[in-house]
Amino acid sequence: ADDTIKVGILHSLSGTMAISETTLKDTMLMLIEEQNAKGGVLGKKLEPVVVDPASNWPLFAEKGRELIDKEDVSAIFGCWTSVSRKSVLPVVEELNSLLFYPVQYEGEESSKNVFYTGAAPNQQAIPAVDYLMNDLGVKRWVLAGTDYVYPRTTNKILEAYLKSKGVKEEDIMINYTPFGHSDWQSIVSDVKKFGSAGKKTAVVSTINGDANVPFYKELGNQGISSEQIPVVAFSVGEEELSGIDTKPLVGHLAAWNYFMSVEEESNEEFIDSWQSYIKNQDRVTNDPMEAHYIGFNMWVEAVEKAGTTDPSVVQDAIIGVAVPNLTGGISTMLPNHHVTKPVLIGEIQDDGQFQVVWQTTGNVAGDAWSDFLPGSKDIISDWRAPLSCGNYNVKTAKCSGQNF
Amino acid sequence: MFCLRTHDLAKCRSKFNFINIVILLAGIMCSSAVWSDVLFDQSIDKLLGKNFKSVTQGVELLAQSDDERAEQVLQILLAGDLYRLKKEKRLVTIKEEKGKGYLVTDVLESGKIYEVSSKRKIKRVAINNKLRTKIKAAIAQIQLTDKDPGKRSAAVISLFDVVDDNQIVLFEKMYEQEKNEKVRSLIASGIAIGNLKTGSVVEKIAAIKKLEDSLEPSVRNALQATVDSDNDKSVVAAATKALGKIDQKIDNYALMETLFFGLSLGSVLVLAAIGLAITFGVMGVINMAHGELIMLGAYTTYVIQLIMPNNIGASLFVAVPAAFLVSGLVGVAIERGVIRHLYGRPLETLLATFGLSLILQQAVRTVFSPLNRSVETPDWMSGALEINPVFSITYNRLYIIIFCLIVFAMLFFVLKKTTLGLKVRAVSQNRAMARAMGVRSEWVDALTFGLGSGVAGVAGVALSQLTNVGPNLGQAYIIDSFMVVVFGGVGNLWGTLVAGMSLGVANKVLEPVSGAVLAKILVLIFIILFIQKKPRGLFPQKGRGAEG
Amino acid sequence: MLTIENLNQFYGESHTLWDLNLHVEEGKCTVLMGRNGVGKTTLLSCIMGLLPIKSGSAQFMGQSLFDHSAEKRASMGIGYVPQGRQIFPAMTVEENLQIGLSARQDKLKKIPDYIYELFPVLKEMINRRGGDLSGGQQQQLAIGRALVVDPKLLILDEPTEGIQPNVVQEIGDIICKLNRETGLTVLLVEQKLPFARKVADNFCIMERGKNVATGDISELSEELIKEYLTV
Amino acid sequence: MHSDKQLFDRKSQLFLLVLAIVTVAVLALNILVPEGNPLHISTYTVTLLGKYLTFALLAIAVDLIWGYMGILSLGHGAFFALGGYAMGMYLMRQIGDRGVYGDPILPDFMVFLDWKELPWFWHGFDMFWFAMLMVVLVPGILAFIFGWLAFRSRVTGVYLSIITQAMTYALMLAFYRNEMGFGGNNGLTDFKDILGFSLQENSTRLTLFVLSALFLALGYIACRYIVTSKLGRVCMAIRDAEDRTRFIGYRVDKVKLWVFVFSAALAGIAGALYVPQVGIINPNEFSPLNSIELVVWVAIGGRATLYGAVIGAIAVNYAKSYFTVAMPEVWLFALGGLFVLGTLYLPKGIAGIMKRKEAVA
Amino acid sequence: MVPQADSRLDIKNGCMLYVEDVSVSFDGFKAINNLNLYIDEGELRCIIGPNGAGKTTMMDIITGKTKPDTGSAYFGQKINLLEMSEPEIAQAGIGRKFQKPTVFEEQSVFDNLELAMAGPRGVLPTLFSKLNGEQRDHIEQVMVQIGLQDHSMARSGALSHGQKQWLEIGMLLMQNPKLLLVDEPVAGMTHQEMDRTAELLTSLAGKHSVIVVEHDMDFVRSIAKKVTVLHQGSVLAEGSMDQIQSNPRVKEVYLGE
Ligand SMILES: Nc1ncnc2c1ncn2[C@@H]1O[C@H](COP(=O)(O)OP(=O)(O)OP(=O)(O)O)[C@@H](O)[C@H]1O
Ligand SMILES: Nc1ncnc2c1ncn2[C@@H]1O[C@H](COP(=O)(O)OP(=O)(O)OP(=O)(O)O)[C@@H](O)[C@H]1O
Ligand SMILES: NC(N)=O
Ligand SMILES: [Mg+2]
Ligand SMILES: [Mg+2]
Question: Which GO BP annotation is one of this protein's (chain C) (predicted)?
Fold first, then answer.
């Protein structure tokens, strides 16, 4: 087994998360295949090891351990939900391996062994709110989310942010629903009432996956159009749209770091190879796929740079590595293990694609610890020596809870 | 005639620049003067630009151009049908799909057709919210003079938020010309709103009197603004009173709305559960694959829409029997293949069907991919029946309530009025004896299980109109379904109906007070406590026989 | 009418019926007797097809009975009143009776009136759930139900169990009447000797899964009774 | 037949013996055989086995009430999860100021949601004995309240099953809420040590494995004692003819209640052993589907045979571990097929085959 | 063996069971209508009456299965049966054999008898109870009495109908109650078995009070001293067998010719 380098892929292929994660497994297989076609890494072929943690969180830890301990992989690309990441995190730390996590998340974490290639809240939520406020003149806010940690945290950050911008308490409505909520009648009706007070209103949605379809359908049926009350979502991407009748969604928004519709040479290439890899000309690409693309290329470059796949060496080597992203820029791995990315706001079109209506002028650096949460505004992360700490409190000058 | 009126309108000074567009559009139509070819060409250039800013400029230029084609271009753009050929730099619309690409028609030179080989060679011209607002507003303004009184009303209402002195003058003028009573009354409201802002105390009080019956949110906002900021006490008092009256009405309608929401949620629960009320309630099979049978019905709807993409409106009418057949046949297969070996061992049916549900889910993942599938909503099921500005009934929900009642009635008929119902019950109560009485138990079992499964499939058609069509669809409903059947009383169809409806209403009554999550928890706790009071559900099977 | 030859039956490992032979003459009433647990009910269940048999053959009106499924046997003309009544508890009296209709050859859709005439109590209780009836009422319902299929052969397993004396007499009369007037063949399991003597033409005594004595009811001697029916 | 009434009948002896041998063998192969040797059992595998053993204990708890008393609980996962949460809370408190925010008292998830103080129900969990008490008390008390209500009003059959399901479903929704103070959907994780021993140490892992085996054995013996006692026969009487049992003077509600409470406490212990070995507890453990699945384990193993429940739990979970690696794309077909074929062809479960073999022999 | 009678059982004036003015109706149908019944200590009482007269329902009321709409039922002077649950009534000393034999089908004959055996019924005592030799002998003896000694370990579900009847009687014997309610004990029994049952019941009387419901007149005649006739939920006649047999109303509604 010395002539190959093993790469672990830890995405659910069954259970509730299979709907999102299966695509990421395929993306990784494609990236690895392409890399091998280019000659592999360090002159060796890459060998993907796929396991199915079956949307079961403890199983992520178990399978993660299996990948590292038994399969001896050099890095793991995987997870979608935060809880799955939290579950494997102690394992990758203990066994000192690498995990590339490709999904937007609530932040408030920076592990020595995890690389967060999805968006931190400041790379998605805050720019989106800025856009609504400045470009669309939104004055009244509905923060609607699924009742779990990511929406709760994001909304907490947004609430603080909006208040810091002078938005009054009564102009913010917060609403949480259970996972897979499908009966949105009362909530949409409330939103409608909330939005009929004569001030421009928008919904900032952290509604998770499956609950979105019935939500948008209800919006449409109750006659709320995107011009009246636009919805900006953080969890609705091309993949999700491909399973939705997009008629009622047209004109609503999403904030991501990547859209399939971005016209860039590299993106077209990526789309081409994806569609031919998956043998389906209708398959779409999405943000987490780009995140894996970035993460994988960063890892490859870091390994080449370090001349070894030894995780402890790669950890250091990867900081500062810059690779092209798919939106025409360059993303860099930051010392806090997050990456720099542009933020794009897209409007949903009836073909299930997003039309970019706004984007940041340059890249935004991912912030592990939100400046808008009282508990974490003093915390920074820097994995370079001499600090080498994921959560350094600048006030107390302490680095807590590190196992190293 | 049309032009004349438009001109009349245009004479009224307005601060809205979209009215300028209207003036220009009107100008284009009325005069044959062509003086802005250059402007038009520039605008087309801009529309061909890649980024959004360029398109916006293009639209603005187009608005000023009086080229005859400008309006048409705007309409196509608004509909989202405008594309650009990337290489050739032409504006086109799609004529038809051809292989992997399209046949497209040139927008500017009608009749000219190109063939593109790949879907990615053409690109839709972007419009966004802001632009859409602009174009739509312009259309609304045009519709102030539309033939259709409904559209005129909507246009009037859309101006309520921005009534000022000028608008009052305009409204007054329109008021004189307007023939339709409803529209006249709306215009009068508009004038009143204006008076509320700028009129004398007497005018204001008169305006309040006029407005206190209106349920328009803008009216309410105007009154609220008066209460908040007017200096005259009598005006404030009158406005407060009017507001109270309006709020009272709104509250009443909110109650009706809650009831409607509850019943519609209830009918979804009933639909999901009713098949189970047969397979579980009557036959005693703890069918954990019930949710997957619903899912199959939803996927059938999807497939039917694939087969008849141009007839989405009719597709549902095909989907209902098709889903009944598909799920029903799968049900029969399950019964023949598995369940029939397990009669007399009801708990074992739970285990086997649990396994089957895993298999069916994975089968759907394999066949249709793990992604959700897009099922379209026909036009006749979209939108809402607006009863008044604060109370409307969404069509999809309305139809689903009706659908639910129809399905229920049919099932009730089959089980109560045909001998099948009798035989099923006989078989489930004493299989051996039923056989000794000449009942073909196997046939009855297969038929009944097929019926229950088929009904689950039909429920899937309804659910495809409300929620995701994906491999997890079934799991989302299985627990609720069992809850409903058991809460209603196993073996009682009425129980299922009443249970579903009351759980739906309870949920919707609680939701605004406690939030959706707590509402659900509270309903569950309610069920647990209720079962303590009535250990055999809402409509228990009574008598000596039921106790054992 | 019904001839059974060399019937063997097992409950799992235990051999219950041993090479059993039985002959039921057409138009006659045959009573089957024997102590508790000798296999009378088991035999009847086999005839009805409710228990699998190991080996043996049965001729019913010229057809091989065991070739037909249990549900077919009802429409071939066998009515069954099981031991323990086996009423459908959650169905009304009327529904209990209706079940038998579909097995009738004549496709009658209504319960024949004579059933209610034979058992007036059923008419009274027509809308009550079968399970709510008293034991005796259930027994009457069970007989009524068996008659609904319009049988040629009526099989009764201890039909007088739990029935009030005057109704027992009536049932006896009814069996006789059906037997003598309509020519209905009857196979009866009965413990009560007087009753058996009154209604039966032939007898058959079983002992440990075999039949050990048969004959005309007049031949049912005290010795036989002492040997096979006493404990 | 009479052997069924002996506490340590042949099968029980065999079972306990096998359990002891396997435990010792696994330990030996882990410690004594050097890594790289094909016979070596990695700590990863040991922990995996430990997890199976906790599932087996849970399965026994379910079998006790379902197999022997006829109560089909579709909510036993809730008791398991509650035990797990009690243990998780202890482990969280053990983190102390080593959390990312360095707060000596508050767990991380409370800090970043800006909670100022520890909720009352978190007090005491810094003490091991208290937490262990809660491991049995919390599920026990919930089971007591629930059972007291349900059994007193004679809720039976599917009605009982469905309200147990409603119970676990309600708990799942509640625990998903961040406001509940149990970490929302992320649950409790990133544990550091237990009683001062690092959870990452081999020795700690092995100890947890041995403890799981030990508690499985104790749980087995306790359940075996119950089912072989007269109480066990009362349970079976209740299962087969509840009314009749009342008429000979047994307080059916009380018998059900206490056995149910005992079973819940046992499930709680299983949960408490599970959490430190898998490293996370979150509301998904309350998922109604989990509870259904564990009933399936018992059925596959063989209802009303305690050792069967153990075999079922281990077999199904092993199959899952194996299939998810061997055939990640189609393992659900395999598992689903196993359930279907198992019910069809092994009506008495795996234990049924053994019984049949014995009967033949 | 001492009956496990409730210490409150007060039968000073010789009356064991009082049922007074009891009525019960089901969905409007009066199954029991102002019924009065008194049973003396040690008495053996036969109750007969047409099918549906309410005999079984009466037993349901006495044993707590059915709560009457009106009336009272006392066990001895003090024990109000209407306030007690089925197990409490059973523990107070009332045992019952059902019309349709119900035994614990999955358990052996021996276990069925052991379960029924008088003794503490609490959770802990049953958990720790052990059979002593004397108790075992008692069970063996009852098994002989009911003719099932060869079936000691047989699954009781595999017994024939008549055997189940016997087993149920055996369970009643094990319970050793002060008052026995026996619903149609000889249904499905041969004549000779009937005689044995008659013998058994008469021998029990004296020490126990026994209420027997039966339709078999030969059997009733062989054991009865006093007979009560129920009709449409109330007492139609009461007296010696001869009196009853010559009562024209009884003849009309019940005995026939
Ligand atoms: N389901 C069964 N499983 C095993 N053995 C059984 C089963 N049913 C009956 N038996 C046994 O088979 C034998 C015959 O039973 P059967 O019910 O046919 O007797 P029977 O002659 O009808 O008696 P009775 O007069 O008491 O009704 C009995 O010894 C009984 O124990
Ligand atoms: N739960 C019930 N619902 C409706 N009717 C009932 C119920 N229980 C009993 N009955 C009716 O009450 C009457 C008395 O029944 P009961 O069983 O007490 O009669 P019985 O005297 O025991 O008759 P048998 O001698 O036939 O056993 C019957 O007519 C019966 O149909
Ligand atoms: N990280 C998320 N989206 O759970
Ligand atoms: Mg019999
Ligand atoms: Mg009776």
Answer: L-amino acid transport
